[in-house]
Amino acid sequence: MRTWYHSWRAALRIARRDAWRYKGRSFLVLAMIALPILGVSALDLTLRSSELSAAEAVERDLGGADARFSDPEYGGVPVMQTPKADGYQPKGDFDDEPWPDGPTDVKKAIPAGATVLEDAVGSGKLRTTHGLLHAEIRELKATDPMARGIMRLGEGRFPEKSGEVAATTHFLEASGLRIGSKLTARGFDAEYRIVGSYELPSDLKADQVNALPGALLAPLDKALKADDLPGTSSRSTYLVNLAGSGSGSGSGSGGFTWNMVQEINAKGVLVVSRAVVLDPPARADVALYQQDGWGDYEQSDMAQTAELAAIGTVVGLAMLEICLLAGPAFAVGARRSRRQLGLVGANGGDRHHVRAIVLGGGLVIGVASAVVGTVLAIGLTFALQPLLEDYLGKRFGSFDIRPLELGGIALLAVLTGLLAAIVPAITSSRQTVLASLTGRRGVRRSNRVLPIVGLVAVAIGAAIALYGSLMTDQFAIVAAGSALAELGVVALTPALVGLFGRIGRWLPLSPRLALRDSVRNRGRTAPAVAAVLAAVAGTVAVSTYTASSDAQQRAEYVPELPHGAVSVMITEAGGRDVPTVRQAVQQTLPVDVRADVDRVNVGKPSCEMYSDEEGCGQYEVIVPEANQCPLWKEGDGGEDLTTAERRKLGKDWRCKDNEVYSYADYGVLVGDAKVLKVLGIKDPEAGKALAEGKAVSFDKRNVNKDGKIDIRAITDVKAADKAREADEEPPGDIKSFTAHQAPEGTNAYGLSMIITPATAKAAGFGTVPFGAYYSTTSLPTGAQQQKLDGEIDKTGTEVNLRIEKGYSAETGIVLLALTVFAGLITIGAAGIATGLAQADAEADLKTLAAVGAPARVRRTLSGFQCGVVAVMGVLLGSAAGVLPAIGLLLTERRAQETWYQDALDQGLGSTSPPFVPIVVPWATVAALLVAVPLGAALLAALVTRSHRTLGRRAAT
Description:
Blueprint: H1 2-21, H2 23-50, H3 54-62, E1 67-70, E2 79-81, E3 88-90, E4 115-127, E5 132-139, E6 152-156, E7 164-168, H4 169-175, E8 182-185, E9 188-199, E10 208-211, H5 217-226, E11 235-241, H6 258-265, E12 270-273, H7 274-278, H8 301-336, H9 338-346, H10 351-383, H11 385-392, H12 403-429, H13 433-438, H14 449-471, H15 475-500, H16 509-520, H17 522-556, E13 566-569, H18 578-588, E14 591-601, E15 618-622, H19 643-650, E16 668-670, H20 673-678, H21 684-691, E17 695-697, E18 708-714, H22 717-725, E19 733-741, E20 753-755, H23 757-762, E21 766-776, H24 782-795, E22 800-803, H25 812-840, H26 842-850, H27 856-905, H28 922-943
Parallel strand pairs: 5-10, 7-9, 16-20, 17-19
Antiparallel strand pairs: 1-11, 1-12, 2-3, 4-5, 4-11, 6-9, 7-10, 8-9, 13-21, 13-22, 14-21, 15-18, 17-20, 18-19
Helix pairs in contact: 1-10, 2-8, 2-10, 2-12, 8-12, 8-17, 8-25, 10-12, 14-15, 14-27, 15-16, 15-17, 15-27, 16-27, 17-25, 17-27, 18-24, 25-27, 25-28, 27-28
């Protein structure tokens, strides 16, 4: 034991001294190992710190209260909830009854003697220096001890008077306002002074203002409704402290227990209890978990195993890549220290001492990488914590350092350093003392077992990948087979390098010498080539998959408008801001034809589509019984149909679905012939029909046998909903429109019919401004679109803007990034191999200089040595990378084909057949095959000195 200890101690001291002596090489290897450790450690710190403990999460939600009471709007029907109240449903069976709906009086469920603090939240459009900003309005007395922790004060103070508000920091940044500014809301003349800024720890990007209870929401809501505009839609929850519970810490009464929560649930009220969240009940005691559909959604053992296998594969391949890159660097050190290693042998050291010294170098670099990577990760994460919190949109709960996890990550660095030094250690220990002292290379015999193992791995991996792509739809099988085959190719690399040597006879002097040297010294060439191979294979595989996916998306792209056309649609506030937005588009974009459109409205002009507020109605297009798709009918919904019948109905014109979504309800628009012109509908009869007061139909299912379209106006939405639940006709007046059916195949981009304003008025329908369509003289530029976005932002209105530019590929930057990544890996690996070659071939270079070779031979030889490694790695990697991508694409094609057949079985005949092309990104491959090796060769030639002092060559 003592001998072992002293020998390793000496080996580590020698390794440490060599690492310090050759700082450049040591820093290179340290950076290669430490950078991944830094990234993974920083990711671990960020994720762990952003995860809130139960106590931290409940403090941000409840502040200092014992519980928060809220209304699930089930009309007082008893409810069942999860312990955190993030899932709930009414208690009882409502399969054959209407789903409960309606407000609940939450205050009646609050225990007597409890302290209550109301927390009301609504929204409104607030005036800013840029226009209007839709923001959340919250009325909560933030200075109350029960609210402590919900809001964190930044500057100033919280409001103390009815005319004061505080605002989130993000709101102030977005609005251009500051503390001391006056704040007003649209539709409300009262002014409020901003007295402070705060943040919501779990939502740093929230645009919110805070006022005292009753100071802003109620008067603003009253003013808006008086102006026939949508109100603030405020909802209230209640922070509750039981008598004797103090500040919500659980002292005294102990807070709301699970039994108390269930009692309150029986009154139709939800409860988030501090005591229950911190000490949740057993799953068997939660009634909701016993219901169908409320099982445990944790991952299955198989899913967890697959996830761990995927993580292990990624980590293993990353370690392999680092080892392949760092291994030659350790070999360089061992080659340059061979005389020192020879002296160790001459003084009684045996092979295991030599191995220990080289392995000690890996251990020293690995430990240093682990320490540097971990320390930098902790320091950078701590220093960048504000930026990380802003990116995530929430504050960290605490800076959570978990030593076991960081230690495990650091251990990977140590293991990687040792693995990278294993091959150089074994190679160095096999050299004789005489060869080490004299600088002789000795006879190098290639390993005959490794190529066989690699060939077997390639065959097995290819068979697995082929099985996965042709017989199953599991990506994991293809990925596993591809990874195994790639490892086999890596094992075959020395033999493949030998095959490249046969082309040397046709090359000029410098490239012939470089290729011969690479083939003769496969021990240093193969790892570098394998590293390039692995990086290029991954790049080509991802690039091929990305390019193929891009081609698929291009083929499946469905334009929403004619090319270059523009549309704007606004559904809120009864179209109040539509004229302003129409004019903004007209003045900003190169408009040719503008077609204004309205929408049919039932009830008050301020009603939004699908609104169920009092005074608001709806309408529906009545599809004749004969034109209804049997698959979509109410009741059985085609459940009694056979698969063959469903497939047949899928091709029926009645069951064809529209590929383009229309913002208009039922696809009904109110407009004139300009709409037809902008949409490119070339039907002369359509324009005549509109002029004659007819409806132009683009969906023949809506036209009855008399050539008319019926639309039902519904004024009582709740009565209509009850009638539908009972499979009855909803009450309402039916209006009929004589229709002109557009020719088959007309593309109306989601519209089902168009009527003119006069036709709608004659039928008794009200209309409100909805938006406009525009044709353009040229495609809008990015600058014009940005200017338009700014003008729209000033209105504070949610605008649905569409500019049809055709399919736009987003993969160009991805392919470029992958090419750059593979290029850097290639240049790095080839550079390391070149450095090793120069150290190994120093005697040959001196001989060349002695016999009169030009000075440039050293430079050109260095460049070609680097280029040879790059070319071999890129060629092998390109071939190895295309096959996995093809396998994955074939698997995806099979999966999509299975889904398509299932869709046909369900009657979804409008679904297009799957199109999964296989596209090789030749531009990326060409850049890898030509530009990267050429760049590596030129870079190596430029950084190599042409002149070298001629020294005495050691006798051999």
